[in-house]
Amino acid sequence: MNRQVKAGMTILAVILFVAVFAPVLSPHDPYELGIPYQIPSSEHILGTNDVGQDILSELFYGARVSLTIGIVSALVVTVIGTTLGILAGYYGGKVDRIISQLTNVAMALPSLPLTIVLVAFMEANLRNLIIAICITSWTSTVRIVRSRVMQIRELPFVKLETTMGASSVYIMIRHILPNLGEIVFVRAVMEVANAMLTEASLSFLGLGVLGQKSWGSILHYAFYRNGIINGYYWWYLPPIFCISFSVLGFMLLGYYGKKDIKKKHKKNRKEKISYA
Amino acid sequence: MTFVTVTTGREIEGSFCGSFFERIQSVMKRGMIFQHLLTGIFTLICIITINFLLIRFMPGDPVMHIIGEDEYLRLETLNPKVLEEVRAEYGLDKPILSQYITYLKKTVQFDFGNSYRTKTPVLETVLFRMRWTLLLAVPSILLSALIGGSLGATAGYYSGKKLDTVLSPVLMVLSSIPTNCLAILCLLIFAFRLKWFPLGGITSGGLSGIAKGLDIVWHMLLPMTVMVLFRSASDYMLMKSTVEGIRKEEYITVAQGKGISDRKIVFHHVIKNALCPFITSLCMQFGNILAGSMMVEIVFSWKGMGTLIYDSVNTKDFPMLQTCFLFIGICIIVFNFLADVLNIVIDPRLRKEKINE
Amino acid sequence: MLDIEDVSISFGEEQAAVSEVSMHIQEKEKMVIIGETGSGKSVLLLGILKLLPDSADVKGHIRFQGESLLDKKKKEMQKVRGTQISYIPQGSGNGLNPLYPVGKQIIESIRRKDKTIGKQDAKARMLRLLSEFGFNDVRKIAESYPFMLSGGMRQRALIAMGIAADASLVLADEPTKGLDTERIAMVIDAFSKLQDKTLLCVTHDLRFAKAVASRITVMYASEQMESCEKEEFFEHPLHPYSQAMLKALPENGLFANMGFAPPKSGEILRKGCHFKERCPYYREKCSQEKPPFVTMGNRKVRCWKYADEA
Fold it and tell me: Is B53 in CB contact (< 8 Å) with chain A?
């Protein structure tokens, strides 16, 4: 495992820890009102916002919403994208044409504006937010998986299985899916980062989950209630840092993890040869 | 392995690559472009249909979505007859199929209705706002493609050397900061603290001629910088990993074996091979141009398409949203098509694929 | 012309890909290195051209016409490549840039030799080269892209490209890999046109070696096992590995009970003879001490069977 992957893992572990243990770690109830605009002190390590809520506690609880939306959306998107990609790539022909056309149409939809409209007109709860994010973000996974499956389909061992009469479903699950591990993993990790970014954007615009703290919504209030013009740095800098930090964690994992996996594969192959 | 078999082998090769082959190639090239065109048109029809369905399936009376909530409530109590007239005008009292046809007709005629808020034709507003978005986004996309692309190519070719080790982590961190956060930080430092740039907007007003032009440039510098920073970081990442891959290809070793200078190898062999993915990404950026700068526009209160969409969402201005979506969709489709065509022109292998089928 | 002395090439901490290889190639000699895939032959070629990645560590001496290549700077080396030493990759790989027509890439090589050459002249020379290497419709070949050509055609185009800048020493990497017998015949035909060049060629195809070589070196798991004239090798191979390879030829009875490719790492290569676990003449000494590369008349061999006699 290389340094960058380790760094990414560490970042993610920290965020996960904070999200899980938010109630224990938080010094205050994030919804509890108090004296507004307090600068950081020993009582409020990161100060308070416009209604006197403790910002550090807000951040801890915010990690929960951001991470939940990120991970759940990525899971949904990856499952849908991989399934469609495998079907399109493996069967080709009509199935491929239908799925590809569907992907084309979905790609021509403006992703962020459409998500905003969907969120604006549906009830803003966790489930709807995830649905809105997923509707526009499954396309790139399909495209990448599809083209990879088309390559794998042409490999000798898959052809061999076909001539030996193995069923399509068996081949897809036993032979094609395991060979997709790397790119699906990378896509999934990047998808988490994407979903977290979208969530941050949505709640920055005031369209996040109603009544729940998230990093984007902290930033929303800091921006729209003049926290920036008044120079309340403790209000807007921490959420910016948290969002960027966690996105960085996922990007490190996705970008360098890919190389790491490749290296491992190579090593394994070499060892196999030497013991053959 | 007699002499005869060798000659026949050669003859077969000769005819394989003969004029016949070339003719097929040029015909197929046109055929493929035509096919991509069809896909584009079909996608456009789907987008229009989705737009149509969006209003019909939103909760509430469709008429309310077309003329707006305030107007609807006013007419409902004061003059229900007008309401029915509107309903008839949009064919909302007819079955859904004829409604769809009416909608298609209106779309083809570029009749998108009036805005709830301003009561002016939607098309006018959208076209006006579009100008400002393009003014901001076109230079920033081109500039960042230039900066990010060239830096990425250099870093990828000299992978592991100084430029790569210094620039890659910096740009990685930069690209993980969301655009709105980056915009807020820049706004804070350069506009609020240092007061080098205005806090937002397009122009201070009250100016004309060259002074107005300069004022607009002054206003757009900061949002553009944010966009260039963000986009060139992602362009850099893409170009770098592409070039790193090409660097390992055998034809690069062969080119080096020919004794060609590094500079020539980069320009002749590496760049052209890296162009396909880069052009595809560039076309996607251009396709998304109308909505792509949304967050930056909102932070800098730049009155472009992004803020228009956001305001329309807040005021539930449906005709406006529909028109925005349609234009964004058209833009994406056009540039997708362009990307496909350019890829076919650059890469001869894509032309062959069709010949085999 | 080319003197290679005690050259070892290793990548990081892994087992050396080439260890202590020595050979002296005379002007116009055709030296063929025979060895299985993974025996370090191709690495040696790239090592001579200094085209290995930075992680490679090349030790020993490589002298070309009396000048040390390993001491040359990057710029100087670039001048040598193409015009004095040229490299021909295998046609089954993508040694040709997929996005340019074949002719254009050959012209690129021609321009290396003669930078002032006009467009028409360069094109004419390129077409002449192609027809020399057995292409009939040369104009069509010149305009077609690499993917349109078959493996054999690509290989011949690569040979044409390799000698386009008139280098005196030609390095070729597995020219017959992945080709059927008919195409191999064409490639052999193409190589027979290089009479006035010095050739260092790497292959695992014995029959190709028989047709092209004047001298032969056998490599096994990064080490040189035998080095001799072609006739001696095919008539009286000394090393057990050479004998085994020749026995495996169809005309010699397809006798192959030797197992698979050479080991790349692990205990086997750490001590003693690299060939020990496949050798029919194995004795205790072979796993304890590495046999020296001994001279036997005008040939050399690395095996305890002969080292003890000498």
Answer: no
Complex prediction ipTM: 0.86
The token pair at A124 is 């803003």
- What's this model's pTM, rounded to 2 decimal places? 0.83
Q: Please list the residues that pair with C24 across neighbouring strands.
A: C3
Q: Position A90: which residue type?
A: Y
DSSP C132-160: HTT-SSHHHHHHS-GGGS-HHHHHHHHHH
Write down the pLDDT at residue C200: 93
The candidate with the shortest Cα–Cα distance to B171, out of B234, B224, B227, B223, is B234
CATH number at residue B202: 1.10.3720.10
| SS3 call for B71 | helix
Q: Is residue B91 part of a domain?
A: no
Token output for A194: 């994407």
Which residues are bridge partners to C301 per DSSP? C226, C294
| All partners of chain B with 3 or more CB pairs under 8 angstroms | A, C
Would an 8 Å CB–CB cutoff place B59 in contact with chain A?
yes
> Taking CB atoms and an 8 Å limit, are A270 and C264 in contact across chains?
yes
- Token pair, residue A101, equals 């056309």
Q: Which long-range contacts (CB under 8 A, 24 or more apart) does C224-228 make?
A: C224/C20, C224/C21, C224/C22, C224/C23, C224/C293, C224/C300, C224/C302, C225/C275, C225/C301, C225/C302, C225/C303, C226/C299, C226/C300, C226/C301, C226/C302, C227/C23, C227/C299, C227/C300, C227/C301, C228/C298, C228/C299, C228/C300, C228/C301
Question: Regarding the domain delimited by A3-275, which CATH topology (the fold level of the hierarchy) does it fall under?
Answer: MetI-like fold (1.10.3720)
Interface test with C, best of B13, B158, B242, B345 (most C CBs within 10 A): B13
Question: In angstroms, how far is the first alpha carbon of chain C from the final one?
Answer: 29
What radius of gyration, in Å, describes the C-alpha atoms of chain C? 20
Question: What's the gap in Å between the CA of B152 and the closest CA on chain C?
Answer: 20
- Residue spans of alpha helices (H) in chain C: 41-48, 74-80, 102-113, 119-132, 138-143, 151-163, 181-191, 206-212, 230-235, 240-247, 304-307
> Structural domain of residue B174, as residue ranges?
21-57+110-351
Q: B103 CB contacts (<8 Å, ≥6 apart)?
A: B48, B52, B90
- Predicted local distance difference test score (pLDDT) of residue B262: 87
Q: What is the mean pLDDT of each run of 10 residues along chain A (276 residues)?
A: 85 89 79 76 75 81 89 94 92 90 85 83 83 88 90 84 83 85 88 90 84 85 80 84 90 79 51 32
Percent of chain B past pLDDT 70, that is, above it, reads: 89
What whole-number distance in Å separates Cα of residue C226 and Cα of residue B264? 41
Number of domains in chain B: 1
Rounded Cα distance between B65 and B87, Å, is: 11
Please say whether the beta carbons of A250 and A196 come within 8 A: yes
Is A113 part of the contact surface with chain B (CB cutoff 8 Å)? Answer: yes
Residue A251: phi, psi to the nearest 5?
A: -65, -40
DSSP A28: S
Q: Is C120 exposed, middle or buried, given 0-12, 13-18 or 19+ CB atoms closer than 10 A?
A: exposed
Residue B4 falls inside a structural domain: no
- Residue C86 and residue C162: Cα distance in Å, rounded? 6
Are the beta carbons of C265 and A270 separated by less than 8 Å?
yes
Q: In a 10 Å sphere around its CB, with 0-12 CB exposed, 13-18 middle and 19+ buried, how is residue C82 labelled? A: buried
One-letter-per-residue 3-state SS of B217-247:
HHHHHHHHHHHHHHHHHHHHHHHHHHHHHHH
Q: How far is B278 from chain C (nearest CA, A)?
A: 15
List chains touching C (3+ CB pairs under 8 A). Answer: A, B
Paired strand residues for C176: none
User: Domain segments of chain A: what residues?
Assistant: 3-275
